[in-house]
Amino acid sequence: MHKELRVAAYAVCVRDGRLLMARWVAGDGTRRWTLPGGGMEHGEDPYDTVVREAEEETGYAVEPVALLGLDSVRRAYPRRLGTHADFHGLRILYEARVTGGELRHETDGSTDRAAWHPLEAVPALPRVGLVDAGLRLWRERPPTGKPAAT
User: Fold this and answer.
1) What is the DSSP string of the chain?
2) In contact, 65 and 96? CB cutoff 8 Å
3) Using one digit for the tens of pLDDT, what is the confidence trace for 46-73?
4) Which of 55, 92, 98, 120 has the greatest CB tally within 10 Å of its CB?
5) Each residue of 108-146: pLDDT tens digit?
C-alpha cells in the first residue's frame, strides 16, 4: 500500500460572529465548505503557508495570532491499477485575523468561492470535517492543542 503524508496549515478567522470559509471543489465536482488554507510546499514554514493559502483562496491578508492545535486524519483510498493509498493528513490550525485585502473568489485553484458564514449557520452547511475540528479547537483552546476525547 502506498503511504501518503500531507501536511497543511489552515486559518480559523472569526469576526463579528462569522467564520471565513472557502468552498472546496473535490475531484468528482462535489463542493463543500472548508477553512482557508492548504498544503505546505517543501521547505515552507507553516505560518507562511497559512498566510499564502488564505490570500490565494479568499483575497485577504491574514495574520496568525495563535496556534490552536493539530488535527490528524487517516484514510485509505483506491489508486490506479487496483492499488490503494494509506493517506495521513496532518493539519495545523491557527487562529488568524484579517489585516487587509478584499474578499474575492479563487480562480484556477481548489476552491471556487469565499464567504463569511454566521457561526450558528455552519452546522447546516455542506462542509469538510476540518471545519468542525477547527471550530472546536477555537472554542476549547486545549493547552495541548488536542481536544479532550468525546
Assistant:
1) -EEEEEEEEEEE-EETTEEEEEEEE-TTS-EEEE-SEEEPPTT--HHHHHHHHHHHHHSEEEEEEEEEEEEEEEEEEE-GGG-EEEEEEEEEEEEEEEEEE-----SSSSEEEEEEEEGGGGGGS-B-HHHHHHHHHHHH--TTSSPPP-
2) yes
3) 999 999 999 999 999 999 999 999 999 9
4) 92
5) 889 999 999 999 999 999 999 999 999 999 999 999 998
